[in-house]
Amino acid sequence: MAREKIIIVGGDAAGMSAASQARRRRPDLEIVVFERTPYTSYSN
Amino acid sequence: MIRRPETFREKFNIDVRTGHEVVELDLAGQRVLARRLADGEERWEPFDRLLIATGAVPFCPDLPGASARGIFGVNSLQRGIELRRFIEEEKPQRGVIVGGGYIGLEMAEALVRQGLQVTLVDRAPQVMGTLDPDMGALVAEALRGIGVTIYHGESLAGFETSGGRVTGVVTETRTLPAEVVVLGMGVRPDSRLARAAGIPLGDGDAIRVSSRMETGVAGVWAAGDCAESFHLVSRRPFYIALGTVANKHGRVAGITMAGGDAEFRGVVGTAITKVCDLEIARSGLQEKELSRLGLDWVASTIESFTRAHYYPGAGPLAVKLLAEKGSGRLLGGQIVGTEGAGKRIDIVAVALHAGMTVEQVAELDLAYAPPFSPVWDPVAVAARETAKLV
Ligand SMILES: Cc1cc2nc3c(=O)[nH]c(=O)nc-3n(C[C@H](O)[C@H](O)[C@H](O)COP(=O)(O)OP(=O)(O)OC[C@H]3O[C@@H](n4cnc5c(N)ncnc54)[C@H](O)[C@@H]3O)c2cc1C
User: Fold this and answer.
1) Into which CATH architecture does domain B191-267 fall?
2) What ranges do the domains of chain A cover?
3) What would the DSSP string read from start to end of B300-360?
4) With 70 as the cut, is the pLDDT of residue B1 above it?
């Protein structure tokens, strides 16, 4: 069976906090973040 | 702080695809359409759970000349870097800031520091609209003190341009010559993808969410500047675009998406900024919000010092508190003053979370020693004064 997959749209404060928390709890999840700009989280 | 995408990939096994824009959500089909900006290639990507964390977009006036070179909205790191490069390379002499919110004020100060002659225009009768007018006046005074010219009550009507470059800002009453313009007219939630996909929106078109940050559509979450919050003082849905809230939203969304338990109960509207030597902070509801809610309130403003008045570095500060008439419940507070003033707003924030009365705030056992505070803490003094009016 394929791994459970989370998609996050937006890789800044909210998106990357969520990605990190989800990863901490579920090492098995596939987590994909789409970010329009060349940068990720800069405000925390 | 910038964390590079590689760090997320290598350290946390999070597949961050920068330079990719999601252009469509297909919720029934549980997939999103992502476009790689480098070559325009589009691909459907399936998901089990989706988080929308698209942030906010700045109000951008649809006015003649708005796309001219030299006009900036500093809503992203990328735009901020572009602005700095523009100033270094083009050496503009005159800058106009449109909008007197915290971003406008921070930018006004930054341009003054770069040696520009700066004018600030705001359609409201005061700067810093999140403060009451009397407290906003203290901020305007500080701005004028560093040489900023302020025009209140004037709406932006357009831009003057020449050869694709901005040369001036046009208001209803005048034209202000400028080689660089910074727009700080506020933001609105970027809920375009959500709206198109039929996800219910709320206050100010922010995405409506539960306390677990779930939207009205099963399997879809929203967090940050694109999502709504709940105001714990007004007990109403409330839109606020701040990093502190975005981080909390994101944390809760990440936990609940992973099957855990977490709740984001709400905000009290706390915010802080700094212009020149002044720290500016607010929490809770302000006069205009209280009027809108039809609440009967009392308010008082006191002046004091950030430290014992004889201690080196002690400076003036003003504290304003608002309380409900009759019950004495604290409803809001604002602080403007020199170094050491601003973070005192956290006392107000905590008291608002706890639903305290101003009488109770006046009795708090707050820290005192001369380097930190007068023996009567200014917030407690303001609470005592406000309690007298309740
Ligand atoms: C100049 C400035 C100063 C600030 N100072 C403070 C401060 O002192 N304190 C404070 O609390 N807050 C501050 N803020 C606000 C804070 O930056 C924001 O509240 C916070 O960044 C919100 O985080 P977010 O993740 O919700 O949204 P954003 O930071 O807006 O991130 C959203 C991300 O999603 C991406 N995105 C959007 N749509 C798509 C799409 N369709 N596909 C792919 N990617 C997409 C965007 O490129 C962006 O990177 C400041 C903001 C600015 C502009």
Assistant:
1) 3-Layer(bba) Sandwich (3.50)
2) 5-34
3) EEEEEESS-TTSTT--EEEEEEEEETTT-BEEEEEEEESTTSGGGHHHHHHHHHHT-BHHH
4) no
